[in-house]
Each structure stands twice: as C-alpha cells, then as structure tokens.
Amino acid sequence: MRLKRKQGDSETVVRHRRQWPRRLVSLLLAGVIFACGVGVGNGRINLDLHRTQSVATSLPDKLDYSTVNQVYQSLKENYDGQLTEGQLVDGLKHGLAEATKDPYTEYFTAKEAKDFNDELNNSFSGIGAELGEDSNGNLQIIAPITGTPAAQAGLKAQDIIASINGSTTTGISVDDAVTKIRGPAGSKVTLQVVRSKSQALSFTITRQNITVPSVTTKTLDGNIGYIQISTFADDTNDLIQKAADQFAGAHLKGIILDLRNDPGGLLDAAEHVSSLWLQKGQMILQEKRGNIVEDTAYAPDNGELHGIPTVVLINGGSASASEITTGALHDNHDAYVIGEKSYGKGVVQQLINFGDGSQLKVTVASWYRPDGKNINHLGITPDKTVKEPSTATPDNDPQLQAAEAYLNK
Questions:
Q1: Cα separation, 255 vs 224, whole angstroms
Q2: Domain residue spans in the chain?
Q3: How large is the average pLDDT for residues 280-299?
Q4: Which end of the chain is more exposed for a tag (fewer CB within 10 A), N or C?
Q5: Terminal CA-to-CA distance of the chain, rounded, Å?
C-alpha cells in the first residue's frame, strides 16, 4: 500500500520527488520473524493541494447518529460490566473502518498507531533473536542478531528453546513465542534452552529497544553479490545505495536480490531500489483511482546496477513494495525471478493522522506494473518456480542455490 497523510484539519498528501518524499506500500507482517517483532518503515508528509474526488459520493455529508445513541443508551442502562467513554468512542471509530469490509482499511488508537509505526520502522523492544522451528517442530533460535542482548547473552543458532519464563514451549507457535519473549525495554525474560541436544542452559536476558537494518549484503562464492531487504523502511534508501556503490564497481558475475518474506514498506524506497537497476525513463509503476491515472513513477537516472545479471528471489511472503520492485525489474527485462508466487497486494492506501495521535489507514487506489497488470490477489509468478523446504537453512536453501546456478551459467 502507499500511505498518504493528513495531519490535523489541514490536508497533507505525500507525493514523490518533493521535499520529504516518503510514501508507504503494503504492510503485511510476516509471521516467522524476530523474537521481538519486525516490520516496515514510517512515512513523512508533504503538502499537496491536488486531491482526487472520493468515489464514495453517495454518502451523506454527516452521519445520523440517532440510532447509534439508542445503542449507547441501551448499553449504558443494561451492560453488566465496566465501560469508559473512551472505549466506546474508539469502538465507534474502529467500527467505521471495519464497515468498509476492506482488510487494509483500519483505525488505530494512539497506542495502536505507535505500535504500527514502531513496526514500520523496524523498531521493537526485545532480545533480538530470529526464531523458527526445527524439523521436529521444536522452537529454535535461527540466529541471534549481532550486537543485541540475545547475542551478548550467548544464545547461539540452533539452540532449542524449552521454556520461556518457566512455561514450556511445547506446542506453541512461533508467533506466540514472539509475544512471550518481547516486552518493555529494561525488563527481563528467562529462556531455558537445549544446546547440541544434550546441554541444558538458562539465560536471563534484559530486553532492549532494537532497530534492525532493513538491508544486509554479502558476497557469495563465485563472486556474486547478495542483497537481502527485509522491509522497505526508513533506512532502506541509504543502505541500498551503499550496497549499489559497493557492488557497481566490483566486477561481479551477478547479483541476487532477496525479497523473500519482505512484507512491504515505503513506496519511495521501492522506487529507489528499482531505479538502481533501470535506465532513465523506464516505468516503475502506475497508480490509478478507478480508471483515472493518479501518478506514474519512472527511473530518474540510469541505475548504476543496470546491466549486471540479477536474480530476484520471492515467495508467498513477498508483498506490495517487494512486488513493485520485482515487477519493475522483471517487466523492464532487468532481472530473472526465482522462487514461489508472491502474495498479491496491489492497493494504495492513505494514512491520516489525527491530533490525539490516532490514525486512519484507508485504501484509496491501486497500483499497476509496467506491463499494465494489477497483481491484487494474483501475485507475481516467478520465471522459475522453486519450492522452499519447510525448514530452510543456509545449507538447505534450494531457491538461493537455484539463483546461484542461474548466475553461474
């Protein structure tokens, strides 16, 4: 989704290539991520006086709240429980958003908005360890994040987490474990782990506020550059630019752009990432509201990675901003796509800020690939489909291996 913003009573709409060019694309939080949570970036705002008329022209200027007040009076007089005026008002606001039947239109209270934006910014409070399951369904540490409390405490990859604060992990999901392990900065969590199938260890770890870089890079054997983008976040443009500067003059055999399980993020980040591979004037995407074209994004310059053979890796967790980048590189013949069909999130959204810190996230348009297709509910089918195993490891990653084989041809 792309998020535009309003603030207070004055309209503020995010537009590209102006001061503070920040827009957001799809937010689809992947389930198996960090033990403390991870998400996508936040958006900045810019004044734009142009605004397309709402398609909901049949709605009245104001709602008739008389029947709402009837329900309120009935609750007030009959409900056997505790309610506050704030709860009721927030309930009304949530209900208005939910009435759209659109899963991407949501009202956030001030607290929910803060949580949302923390996730957007890859910021969370926890210990900093990536979680998963082994082949037997045991909860295990995939990897502690360098420099975080998990790494400093001595947790290691493949440690099996037997209990969290004394409660067994048998039968709980990774998401449930994430919830149990994350918590306020400065608080503690105790993990009982089993190492090497025999060594029982206990770690009491103090949680910290953690920000995870959205881009990681390395050079693989065979002189192939590897770029992984976990989310299109606030730091993506700077980090991807550093990666491009590093790889552009390195005489690489090719580049692998790993967008697997990337749920989306800032649209301007997706546009910037895409433009690094494109030539000046090539289309990145087009936005439409109904049949009206709202905006078209083009590569502003010749990308420094253009001409380097590139493979994009995607899967069912690759959504929106990931799909924008994949579509732009594929449709302009600048990348070969390997993996599994992407999620399919092709709608544009606007983020409206209210004075009390609450927010409304509302669907306002759709985006289209350079080939003219909208991928909503359809996804992007890779050029070569390679299934990922239920327990992928660095030594068992057939999608990555297929990408290396393609570039080594």
A1: 6
A2: 125-211, 215-346+365-407
A3: 95
A4: C
A5: 37
Q: 215-346+365-407: which CATH topology?
A: 2-enoyl-CoA Hydratase; Chain A, domain 1 (3.90.226)
Q: Does the annotation mark 173 as catalytic? A: no
Select which of 345, 361, 366, 397 is catalytic: 345
Give the pLDDT confidence of 80-117 residue by residue, as tens digits.
999 999 999 999 999 999 999 998 899 999 999 988 88
Q: Which of 230, 320, 322, 342 is catalytic?
A: 320
pLDDT tens digit sequence for 15-51: 222 222 334 543 333 223 333 333 222 222 222 223 3
Nearest to 259 by CA among 346, 318, 334: 318
288 is catalytic: no
Q: Which of 212, 27, 43 is nearest to 123 (CA)?
A: 212
The answer to whether residue 320 is catalytic is yes
Dihedral (C-alpha) 269, 270, 274, 276: value to the nearest 10 degrees? 10
Which architecture does CATH list for 125-211?
Answer: Roll (2.30)
CA-to-CA dists, residue 115 to 1, 40, 63, 111, 177, angstroms: 18, 11, 30, 6, 18
Confidence check: pLDDT of 179 > 90 = no
CB 404 within 8 A of CB 224: yes
Tokens of 285: 């995407």
Determine which one of 159, 258, 331, 334 is catalytic: 331
Contact 259, 318 (CB under 8 A): yes
